[in-house]
Amino acid sequence: MTRIFSGVKPTGHLTLGNYLGAVRQWVAAEHAPDEALFCVVDLHALTVEHEPARVRRLSRQAATLLLAAGLDPQRCTLFVQSHVDEHTRLAYLLECTATDGELRRMIQYKEKAAKAQAAGDGVRLSLLTYPVLMAADILAYRTDEVPVGEDQRQHVELTRDLAVRFNQRYGHTFTVPRATHPAVAARVMDLQEPTSKMGKSDANGAGIVYLLDEPGVVRKKVMRAVTDSGDGGVVYDREARPGVANLLDVLAACTGADPVRLAEGYTGYGALKRDVADAVVELLRPVRERHAELAADPAEVDKVLREGAGRARALARPVVDRAYEAIGLLAP
Ligand code: AQP
Fold first, then answer.
1. pLDDT of residue 231
2. pLDDT (tens digit, 9 = 90+) per residue, 306-320?
3. From the CB of 146, is ligand 1 less than 6 Å away?
4. Is residue 258 over pLDDT 70?
5. Among the options 110, 115, 200, 220, which is catalytic?
6. Does residue 30 register a pLDDT over 90?
7. Taken in order 110, 112, 115, 121, is the CA torsion positive or negative?
8. Is 298 assigned a ligand-binding role in the annotation?
9. Is 82 annotated as a binding residue?
10. Does domain 205-292 fall into CATH 3.40.140.100?
11. Which fold has domain 3-181+298-327?
């Protein structure tokens, strides 16, 4: 049986990028005969400037949205990272396995550290070490597959390196996981800045479609999406025409069609944008509706998270205990 693990950071409201790049794969995975664990990785949200009450609110909202998107607590384990101490226990051992140099090479660290410095904020040490905590999240469950968007490729590579290194030094302890990405829309771009990823913590919401945006707001954002200059018509070219390629990718992901073939059906951007807006509104409609129902009963969501944490802890504890013993620590 394949074991699947993935997570989402409560750093903002979930976006279309999160949905197409990750969450939709998670929902599909729980219907396969696999064992799947999904996590609101709240500790990762503390690596940049944060407001405590907002992180708490967004954590419950993310869990509610994951349920609304179709995760079924009878088929998967849904929990909050900070509820399972094994993640931080294991992270320390992996910090003793990773090197400063390999963490400083992480693209997200470089980008976010530069952003924090530009804003006059200090760069939190946890921003540097967070990929190690992410490795612990994954390795604690002897995960086989990590369904993520393209932007997480480098972090999963690091996780693999750490698993291999730990196993070689201290004896076989961890499964070496692999990342999986959707065939299209593995990297949904910002509608206003189509050379940058659509990220939920970005300041300018105009280029970001949030899962809970009203249909009218979704339409406005899509219709105002930046397209590319040039009179080459509608063609799929990610390098030369990133804005149009992004819209085609989103439409392809919503309809199951091929983005290159889709481009052949359009002569102008207006019709393309209208179709993208319709498709996204329809894709998100059931998620918004279900979210409204679930959000009315937060105690039920909290119960799912509590039970999920119990199941997760039971899986992670023996793996982390084994790692403690393997690395040379005396059992209590
Ligand atoms: N634009 C995207 N396209 C495809 N997949 C995406 N993911 C995120 N953005 C896109 C995937 O969604 C999962 C959860 O993402 P996350 O919570 O780790 O990160 P985020 O939504 O991108 O939020 P932030 O705070 O803006 O973080 P940074 O800037 O650090 O990425 C992941 O599987 C991710 O790949």
1. 64
2. 999 999 999 999 999
3. no
4. yes
5. 200
6. no
7. negative
8. no
9. no
10. no
11. Rossmann fold (3.40.50)
